[in-house]
Amino acid sequence: MTDVAIGTGEAVVFWILGPVALAGALGMVFSRNAVHSALWLVTTMLSLGVFYVVQSAPFLGAVQIIVYTGAIMILFLFVLMLVGRDSSDSVVETLRGQRVAATVLGVGFAGLVGAGIARATRDTGIEGLGDAGGTGNIETIAGVLFTRYLLAFEVTSALLITAAVGAMVLAHIEREPGSRQTQKELSRARFLTDRPQTLPGPGVFARANSVATGALLPDGRTAEDSLATGIEPREVEQMPRPTGRAQLGSPDAALGTTDEPR
Amino acid sequence: MTIEAPDLSLAALAPLLFVFGAACIGVLVEAFGPRDSRHPVQVAVALVGTLGGLVTTVLLAGTREVTAGGALAVDGAGLFLQATIAGLGALSLLLFAERNLDPARSAFVVSAAVPAGSVRDRELLTVQRVQTEVYPLATFAIGGMMLFVTANDLLVMFVALEVLSLPLYLISGLARRRRLLSQEAAVKYFLLGSFASAFFLYGVALVYGATGTVRLAGVREAVAGAEGGTLVVLGLALLVVGLLFKASVAPFHTWTPDVYQGAPTPVTAFMAACTKVAAFGAILRLLYVAFGTEEWTWRPLVYGVAIVSMVIGAVLGLTQTDLKRMLAYSSVAHAGFLLTGVLGLPATGDAAGSGLPAVMFYLLAYGLTTLGAFAVLTLVRSGEGEATHLSQWAGLAQRSPLTAAVMSLFLLALAGIPLTSGFTGKFAVFRAAIEDGAWPLALVALLASAVAAFFYLRVIVLMYFSEPAVDGPTVGVPGLPTTIVLAVTAAATLLLGIVPGAVLGLADRAAIFVG
Amino acid sequence: MSVTHYLVLAAILFTIGAVGVLVRRNAIVVFMCIELMLNSVNLTLVTFARATGTIDGQIMAFFVMVVAAAEVVVGLAIIMSIYRTRRSASVDDANLLKY
């Protein structure tokens, strides 16, 4: 095949989307909020998708946008929303000076690999894919995929089964028969007890509505029913019991059934 | 357009078909089998699959064939390693199946989806059911490993790497006791593992860019034709880094102690034995087949990494107080010894050099010994599970002379004392290195073995010459599966030490790569 | 402008991803950084496919996507399970949900 030259249009696309992709990557690493990170990554992935289309891989470009940004990143966002947006607690140990060391290492790695690649490919021409990169792209991919890479293709099924089984193992709680009652059974059982109504919440004169403090009955005792199981009841300083008419006022006055002037 | 079907030799694929088939049947059993009989059925399916794989590899002995459109190389070395993986895998599955040791009847969790520490979790702790998905998952991992050592193509190698890794990430988080630790091990292993496979993949991409192909033979031709240059060197370095990670070679070993400690002990045994074999099988094939003509590029890298690994493994192993962590560092040190043998490359492609058979023998011997050592660890238990702290092992010989004797045998073999398989293996790899002129490396390896021997012997001394602790651990009576594992591994450790001739000869004859 | 531009861009993206893995502490963000690394490898593969005139690179990129999808499922499931435990380890001890 003859060498293919890169046209101006492609150069324009590269110089616009290249910085966008780079900004997306940097944004992902630097944003504090994990959701922002995910959205930055989507930007990069979309730019890469366009690069694929430009570089005679239209099918891959479409798959990149549909599968990667459309499915995989959405999965990421789902999980982020499930575990809480502000989930910033770490499972990786933090080491002192790790950031600096990692950055230095990174710059070194980029310099080494980037310079190496640049030097090695400086004079590389572009063979080009011809029709295989255009209208015949999907046919060509299929042809090679099902012959030369048949084994790899078949083995990926093992990968997908593993993924499905794994997700099920870690996320699906099996209900044993009889271990969980239906709503109907629950309400029937409830009405067979002495107390079909809800348990009492904080009661008269309660100073706190925390689950750890019980409700007070009118006579000052704690209502045992209102205490949550499994929590140590907490003593709360009670409101001083009002005594005497001076504080309470006369009941008649409160009810307005007296002739006394207020 | 017409597509011509690629050649597929079902005979050559039979071991893989057996193992992957068993894994798929296991998944179906999980879906449709009655709950009560799942555990025995799963164990049977997984064992039939792996043992079937073992038998078919033995039947295939002597085959030299490149099949599946050139993606799979079934050759002597590949079959030897496949048989090793299948055999060690079957033994590990027996450890998985042990029901007698833990009062809760298994090392695996009842339901991994129930959050650790919740009320439901505590209720389930004593339930006899097990998350039986571990068996198909482990079988998938074994299949991936068997594919990994016969992959004749960098892409298949990458896919196989993932096929073997993903189930391992999952099952290392399924411990019944100390679940948080186990889950953390899974997260750590997963993040670092996929980090390493990204490097491997970048290496594949660069090698592909330099040579225009990913077939190992094609790469070899292109590299010999002096194409690529810088790209090939960069790509090779990245590929090797990815593989060294899986083989837990220092300085890419940081995950090893944590994951070995956190994972359920049968899984640790499985990882220590089988993953090591698979990773080294792939390293050997990659370096010898694809880059055999480019020895000058990888020789310094392997040389340096071998030294670092031996030194780190031996020195840090000294400071450990937990037996599982100690065995993890021992595995790092052994990875260094294995690399010493890798340097003994046959002078020309398929002429029998001493490096390849030596490493193959070492892998078999080390796999059996380390599997046995971890099996002994499952026996010694205290109230909250396995007693892995060193101090708990004090005076174990008085409590259970047999356990202490078997453990001593394994530790002596790991240390490389004569009349055990460890000595034969070490002798073989060091000889290979010296024959290849790497005698300084062999010297470092000898010193490292001496240092490492110290921490193995320390455990033996502790078991025999210390007063047992008052509230020491109890030694459980193993059920049939663990007994089989201990018997097989102990017998093999002794036999490979006393009469290694037959197996050494087999490794010598099998040490051939095609592709 | 030549393929080198694409390749160097990919190398830089790969490095940013790798550095991100080392400096970020949120497991999910670390995992996103790994995805970025895989994406940059795909760009490299597609570029090399065009440069060498072989379709293999595109097919490999395709495989990388499949593998990444499987990896994401497994990885997020593992991360989910540990987050679920961590959050509920303190709260689930108490049976707060009275009827």
UniProtKB/TrEMBL annotation, chain A:
GO MF terms, alphabetically ordered: NADH dehydrogenase (ubiquinone) activity; quinone binding
Catalytic class of the enzyme: translocase
Primary localization class, coarse: membrane
Catalysed reaction equations from the record: a quinone + NADH + 5 H(+)(in) = a quinol + NAD(+) + 4 H(+)(out)
Membrane topology category: Multi-pass membrane protein
Record key words, sorted: Cell membrane, Membrane, NAD, Quinone, Transmembrane, Transmembrane helix
Subcellular location(s) per record: Cell membrane
TM annotation in the entry: 12-30, 37-54, 60-80, 100-118, 149-171
Region Disordered: start-end pairs: 217-262
Any single Pfam family the record assigns to this protein: Oxidored_q3
EC number, as in UniProt: 7.1.1.-
Gene Ontology CC: plasma membrane
Tree of life domain: Bacteria
PANTHER family (UniProt xref): NADH-QUINONE OXIDOREDUCTASE SUBUNIT J, NADH-UBIQUINONE OXIDOREDUCTASE CHAIN 6
Function text: NDH-1 shuttles electrons from NADH, via FMN and iron-sulfur (Fe-S) centers, to quinones in the respiratory chain. Couples the redox reaction to proton translocation (for every two electrons transferred, four hydrogen ions are translocated across the cytoplasmic membrane), and thus conserves the redox energy in a proton gradient.
UniProt similarity note: Belongs to the complex I subunit 6 family.
Protein name: NADH-quinone oxidoreductase subunit J
Species this protein is from: Geodermatophilus saharensis
Organism classification: Bacteria, Bacillati, Actinomycetota, Actinomycetes, Geodermatophilales
Automatic annotation (TrEMBL), chain B:
Compartments, as annotated in UniProt: Cell membrane; Endomembrane system; Membrane
Catalytically driven reaction(s): a quinone + NADH + 5 H(+)(in) = a quinol + NAD(+) + 4 H(+)(out)
A GO-annotated cellular component: plasma membrane
Any one GO biological process: ATP synthesis coupled electron transport
Molecular function per GO: NADH dehydrogenase (quinone) (non-electrogenic) activity; NADH dehydrogenase (ubiquinone) activity; quinone binding
Record domain NADH:quinone oxidoreductase/Mrp antiporter transmembrane: where: 151-449
Transmembrane segments: 12-32, 44-64, 76-97, 132-149, 155-175, 187-210, 222-245, 266-288, 300-319, 326-347, 359-380, 401-419, 439-465, 477-499
Enzyme Commission number(s) of this protein: 7.1.1.-
Assembly description: NDH-1 is composed of 14 different subunits. Subunits NuoA, H, J, K, L, M, N constitute the membrane sector of the complex.
Purpose: NDH-1 shuttles electrons from NADH, via FMN and iron-sulfur (Fe-S) centers, to quinones in the respiratory chain. The immediate electron acceptor for the enzyme in this species is believed to be a menaquinone. Couples the redox reaction to proton translocation (for every two electrons transferred, four hydrogen ions are translocated across the cytoplasmic membrane), and thus conserves the redox energy in a proton gradient.
Family: Belongs to the complex I subunit 2 family.
Name of the protein: NADH-quinone oxidoreductase subunit N
Organism: Geodermatophilus saharensis
Automatic annotation (TrEMBL), chain C:
BP term (GO), one: ATP synthesis coupled electron transport
Subcellular location(s) of the protein: Cell membrane; Membrane
A Pfam family of this chain: Oxidored_q2
The organism's place on the tree of life at top rank: Bacteria
EC identifiers of the protein: 7.1.1.-
Annotated keywords: Cell membrane, Membrane, NAD, Quinone, Translocase, Transmembrane, Transmembrane helix, Transport
Sequence intervals crossing the membrane: 6-23, 28-49, 61-83
Location (main, coarse): membrane
GO molecular function: NADH dehydrogenase (quinone) (non-electrogenic) activity; quinone binding
Cellular component, GO annotation: NADH dehydrogenase complex; plasma membrane
Catalytic activity annotation: a quinone + NADH + 5 H(+)(in) = a quinol + NAD(+) + 4 H(+)(out)
Membrane association type: Multi-pass membrane protein
The protein's assembly and partners: NDH-1 is composed of 14 different subunits. Subunits NuoA, H, J, K, L, M, N constitute the membrane sector of the complex.
Record's function text: NDH-1 shuttles electrons from NADH, via FMN and iron-sulfur (Fe-S) centers, to quinones in the respiratory chain. The immediate electron acceptor for the enzyme in this species is believed to be a menaquinone. Couples the redox reaction to proton translocation (for every two electrons transferred, four hydrogen ions are translocated across the cytoplasmic membrane), and thus conserves the redox energy in a proton gradient.
Entry similarity comment: Belongs to the complex I subunit 4L family.
Record's protein name: NADH-quinone oxidoreductase subunit K
Natural source organism: Geodermatophilus saharensis
